[in-house]
Amino acid sequence: QVQLVESGGGLVQPGGSLRLSCVFSGSIFSTYAMGWYRQAPGKQRELVATITKGGRTTYTDAVKGRFTISRDNTRKTVVLQMISLKPEDTAVYYCNVEAITGRDYWGQGTQVTVSS
Length: 116
Fold this sequence. Notes:
Elements: E1 4-7, E2 10-12, E3 18-24, E4 34-39, E5 46-51, E6 57-59, E7 67-72, E8 77-82, E9 91-97, E10 110-114
């Protein structure tokens, strides 16, 4: 069984920073590419960043230069470091595997609110 648990969200002012963490409960973490997603109010869930099992990363244009995705295959964690946060970054953030089986793995996510 696979479980993904996100943490680290909160309320920050514009320009602030947050570090989100995702813990993977399964035993095959190192075989998956991973991604961070977000869903803002009234919007569809969107892909924010990805990282392959070897550490290659991609980012959506809206977060390039501000967000950094990383992984630790021994600790089975994926991190999203966010700086220079903007109100439009407000969303629930989720991590998941970049595989068809990810449809079964969505967790609760962690709320990020950027507001004055």
